[in-house]
Design a protein that fits this description.
This protein has 239 residues and is an all-alpha fold. It folds into two domains: 99 residues, Tetratricopeptide repeat domain (Serine Threonine Protein Phosphatase 5, Tetratricopeptide repeat, Alpha Horseshoe); 72 residues. Helix content is 79%, strand content 0%. It is built from 13 helices and no strands. Helix 5 packs antiparallel against helix 6, helix 7 packs antiparallel against helix 8 and helix 9 runs antiparallel to helix 10. The two termini are 18 Å apart. 40% of the residues are buried.
Length: 239
Amino acid sequence: MFRRLITIFIVSTSVGCVTVTEPVAEVDNKKAAISRIELGFNYLESGDSAKAKQNFTKAMRVAPELAASHLAIAYYYQSVGELNKTHAAYLRGIATVQQRGDLYNNYGAFLCSQREYEQALHYFEQAIAQPDYYQTAASYENAGLCALQAEDKQQAFEFFQRATEHQPLRFQATLQLAKLEIAQGDRANARLRLHRFHQRYGYHVNSITLLIELEKQADNWSMVDRYQHLLERQLPVSQ
C-alpha cells in the first residue's frame, strides 16, 4: 500500500551522501554497506532470513550514519514480525543520521500499518519538513492513504491534493482524488481529472472502474455500457 520499498531509498541515500569532500574510507564504507544491504534483500526474498539479518547487521556496523542501513534492519524486523524491534530500529536511525526524511516516511508507513494513525501522520509531516528530502509528493500521498485508512476522507483529500501540487497527475493520488470526488457527487471535477489521467497514462482497470461508477451516478447508461466493454478488454492486459 505504501511507498516503503527500501531499494528506492538505498539509491537515493547512496547518491546523496557520497561527495568529493568525504574521506575515501567513509565512501568505501558506504559502498560496502550498500552491497551488504542489497545482498541482504536477496537473501530475504529467497527466504533466508538469518543470512539477511547477518548482512543487514554488517551494513549497520560499517556505516551506521547511512539511513539505508537503518531502513534495511527496520524492514527486516518488520518482515519477521519483531514489531518492538522495528520501532526501536526506526527511532535509533532518526536519532543517528542527518538525512532523516526517508526514515520519517517509512516509519510513518509502518505506524499506519499498526493503526497508529496520529503518530503516522506526524512522521509523514516530519519527512515533508526536511529540507534535504525530495520525495515530498510520495509522503503526501502516503499521508492521504493513511488518512483514508483512518476514515478521515476530508484530510485524505487535502493530502492527495498536496501530492498532486508537488507532482501533477501523480498516479495513485489522482485516482484517489477522483474516487473521493465521485463519492462527494462532484462528477464534473472527477470526469476532468480522469480525462487528464487517461491522457497521461492511458486506461487502467482502476480508472475505468471509476468511470463506470461515475456514469452510473449520472444515469448515463450508454457510457456505462461502453466503459464496461472497455474494462473487459483491459482486464487481460492489466492482469
